[in-house]
Structures are given as C-alpha cells and as structure tokens.
C-alpha cells in the first residue's frame, strides 16, 4: 500500500510502498479516505528537537483521519466492516490508576498514532477497536477527518461553563476557529478571537467571533472597550502557544476568571503569577480529548446544528491528493490556510 513514511532520522517524508498492516484480535483495519495535516506532522516533517527525541524510524505518520472499516479482529464486537469511522489518536494502557478510574484521557502511558506507532497517512491504518468512533454513514469523510482537532477544540471549550460568559480565544488556527464555533453554539455572550494573521482572523469571524483582532495592531483592552465590556473576560481559551498571547489574556481576565490552555509553547516562559493569585484565576491544561465524552459532544453538536456543520467545513481551506503531499506541507508551513486535507481515496 501507499504510505507517507519517515524512513530515517532527518527532515522530509517519503511517499512509498509498504506492507499493509494486519489487525490483531482487538484491532480494526481501516481504508483511509481523508486525512488532516496538523502542526505535529509538520514537526515530524521538519525533524525538530522534539521529533528527534520522540520518534523511532521507520514510521508512517498522520493521526487525523476518516475511513471505511475493511477488517475487524475476532474480539471486536461493536464495529462492523463497511462502517464509516474516525479514530481516537491516543491509545491508552487500560491499567494505570487513571485508566482504571475511567479517566482515560489522563493515562500516563498514552501512545500516539502516527508518532509512537504507525499512523494514518496511508491507504490503510490499524488501530484498537476501542479507539474507533463509528460515524453516521452519510457524514462527509473530510468532516470525519477533523474529529481529532475538533475534539481538542471541544475538550478545551467545554472545560468550563461558557453559556452567557465573555470568552477570549487566543490563536485562530484551525482549533481556535473550531472553538469559536463551539463557543457560539453553546451560547457565550461576547467572543473575542486574537491572532497575528489576517487570513486566520477572517476564518474566526466566519465561525462566529464578535470581534477578531490582530493583536499586532489592536489590543484586547481596545476590543473590550469596543464591546462595552467593563470588567474582563470570564473564560480564556489559549490556542496559540504564544507567550505574548498568554500574558495579554491573563491581563484581561476578570477576577475569578478561568483559563483552559491547549496551545503548546516551544520553550519555558514567564507568567505574571501575582496577577493569577490576586485575581484568583484558574488555569487548566488540556491534552487530547476525553474518551469518549468529547466524542459524544462532537457528534451531538454536528447532528443538531447546521451552523456548526458549516463552521466546521469552513475550517478546511485546502485539499490535495496524497501524491501532492509536498504541496500540502508547503501550505501549512506558509500559515496562509485553515485545515489542509489529504485525499487517500
Ligand atoms: N494540548 C493538546 O492536546 C494539543 C493538541 C493539538 C494542538 N495543540 C496546540 O494547540 C495550538 C492550536 O493548534 P492549531 O492546529 O490550531 O495550531 P496553529 O499553529 O495552526 O494555530 C496557532 C495560531 O496562533 C497564532 N498566533 C501566533 N502568535 C500569536 C499571538 N501572539 N497572539 C495570538 N495568536 C497568535 C498563529 O498565527 C496561528 O494562527 C497549537 O499550539 C498546537 O500545538 C495542542
Ligand atoms: Zn493533530
Ligand atoms: Zn493508562
């Protein structure tokens, strides 16, 4: 089968022929139809310090995908051949304290598809049956391929009650834009989104932001004044990984404000702990998706809300056949895009 492989340590990826993976008794084999590129794939492509420390080659990369089930292991009884499915990309151990308590997203032994084991930028991928999420048969596979980052956005946006609250979202990458749509859907009052890229701010406006500001030109304080906000934001969703964004967010939170942090920074950075303490802020780190509460929430929102479906689709700005993966990577490297999808069908 075709697969996008990191064959040896160093930059680049190769589209090459590899043997098809075969499912064990607990596994499901999926014919991949669409797959999404994300920052992790770019790190793997570029082979930065994190990638060099984390990855053992050869590795098939890719973890955001949707496809059709073609084979099911003997011990898997809730998935059938022919079903359209997405995959939870974090495989958990099942026996650590958190797993045994049912808090699988807090597993201490998580293994990442397309990072620690072969992934989904390929004609076929094999994952444990327990990681399969069965989709409605009429779901567009490219929306199904968004469930991993849509899940990051959902997990973060639903971390704190947001109905009626004033919400600031820092970073209008694909996940920030999806979080904007979710926050609107759930019923926040004002939603302010920040970025430093106007292309991305346009996507956030389309997804329902009241104000989408370029923080290199407009401050969050100015945005608050425009909206007539006197006190500060109740909820912050950090989706940029940029220290400057975090510090401006913390400086505009109301007393008792709550912040969910998804964006991953490159390095350590300073935050104003005096402000966190005197404003009694709550800061919560977010990783991955809750298994599988986040997945139920995503499916329910899509099932009941046409604006949500539209907003989700609007995040996809580019589509490439798998053979043109170099163009796809060049597109996400440029940053002038939302989600970029590879077509493996
Ligand atoms: N914790 C997790 O499980 C998890 C999972 C997936 C992604 N992530 C992280 O979440 C973040 C969002 O993911 P994404 O795929 O949308 O990433 P992305 O890199 O496409 O988006 C980040 C956005 O932040 C913007 N930005 C940069 N500096 C900024 C600033 N000073 N103020 C405001 N915005 C600024 C960038 O222009 C970009 O549009 C990334 O940091 C990613 O690494 C975390
Ligand atoms: Zn991803
Ligand atoms: Zn575990």
Structural summary, described in words:
With 345 residues, the protein is α/β, with parallel strands linked by helices. The chain folds into two domains: 2-146 and 315-343, Medium-chain alcohol dehydrogenases, catalytic domain (Quinone Oxidoreductase, Chain A, domain 1, Alpha-Beta Complex); 154-285, Rossmann fold, CATH 3.40.50.720. It is built from 13 helices and 18 strands. The protein has helices spanning 39-46, 49-54, 97-100, 141-144, 147-157, 174-186, 198-206, 220-227, 243-251, 273-278, 293-304, 306-314, 325-334, and strands at residues 2-6, 14-17, 27-37, 59-60, 64-72, 84-87, 90-91, 111-112, 124-128, 132-134, 167-170, 191-195, 211-214, 233-238, 253-261, 282-285, 316-321, 339-343. Strands 3, 5, 6, 9, 10, 17 and 18 form a seven-stranded mixed sheet that branches. Helix 13 links the parallel strand 17 and strand 18 (339-343). It is globular, with a radius of gyration of 20 Å. The protein starts with a strand and ends with a strand. It binds nicotinamide-adenine-dinucleotide (NAD) and zinc ion (2 copies). Nicotinamide-adenine-dinucleotide binds at residues 38-39, 149, 152, 170-176, 194-197, 200, 215, 239-242, 244-245, 262-264, 286-288. The site of nicotinamide-adenine-dinucleotide has 29 residues, from helix 5, helix 6, strand 12 and helix 9.
What's the tally of helices?
13
Enter the CATH topology name of the largest domain.
Quinone Oxidoreductase, Chain A, domain 1
- Report low-confidence residues grouped into runs of 5 or more: none
End-to-end Cα distance: 12 Å
User: Briefly, what CATH class of the largest domain?
Assistant: Alpha Beta
Helical content class: 25-40%
Mean pLDDT: 98
CATH architecture of the largest domain, by name, is Alpha-Beta Complex
- What fraction strand? 25-35%
Task: State the secondary-structure class.
Answer: alpha/beta
Main β-sheet description: 7 strands, mixed
Supply the CATH superfamily name of the largest domain. Answer: Medium-chain alcohol dehydrogenases, catalytic domain
How many structural domains can be distinguished in the coordinates? 2
Give the CA-based shape.
globular
Report the bound ligands by name, code or SMILES. nicotinamide-adenine-dinucleotide, zinc ion
Provide the gyration radius in Å: 20 Å
Give a count of the beta strands, DSSP E runs of length 2 or more.
18
């Amino acid at each position: 089968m075709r697969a996008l492989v990191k064959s040896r340590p160093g930059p680049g990826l190769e589209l090459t022929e590899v043997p098809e993976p075969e499912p064990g008794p607990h596994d499901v084999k999926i014919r991949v139809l669409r797959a999404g590129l994300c920052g992790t794939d770019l790190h793997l492509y570029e082979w930065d310090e994190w990638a060099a420390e984390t990855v053992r080659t050869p590795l098939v990369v890719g973890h955001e995908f949707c496809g059709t089930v073609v084979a099911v292991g003997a011990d898997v009884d809730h998935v059938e051949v022919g079903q359209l499915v997405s995959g939870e990309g974090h495989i958990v151990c099942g026996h650590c304290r958190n797993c045994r308590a049912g808090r699988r997203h807090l597993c201490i032994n998580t293994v990442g598809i397309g990072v620690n084991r072969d992934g989904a930028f390929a004609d076929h991928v094999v994952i444990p049956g327990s990681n399969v999420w069965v989709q409605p048969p009429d779901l567009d596979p490219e929306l199904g391929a968004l469930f991993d980052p849509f899940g990051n956005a959902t997990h973060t946006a639903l971390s704190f009650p947001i109905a009626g609250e004033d919400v600031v979202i820092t970073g209008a990458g694909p996940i920030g834009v999806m979080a904007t749509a979710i926050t609107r859907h759930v019923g926040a009052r004002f939603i302010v989104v920040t970025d430093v890229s106007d292309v991305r701010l346009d996507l956030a406006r389309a997804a329902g932001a009241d104000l989408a500001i370029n923080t290199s030109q407009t401050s969050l304080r100015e945005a608050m004044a425009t909206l007539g906000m006197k006190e500060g934001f109740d909820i912050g969703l950090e989706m940029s990984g940029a220290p400057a964004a975090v510090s401006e967010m913390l400086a505009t939170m109301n007393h008792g404000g709550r912040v969910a942090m998804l964006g991953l920074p490159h390095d350590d950075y300073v935050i104003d702990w005096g402000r966190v303490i005197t404003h009694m802020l709550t800061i919560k780190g977010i990783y991955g998706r809750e298994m599988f509460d986040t997945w139920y929430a995503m499916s329910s929102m899509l099932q009941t809300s046409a604006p949500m479906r539209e907003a989700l689709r609007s995040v996809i700005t580019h589509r490439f056949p798998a053979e043109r993966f170099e163009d796809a990577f060049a597109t996400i490297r440029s940053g002038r895009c939302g989600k970029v999808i590879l077509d493996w069908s």
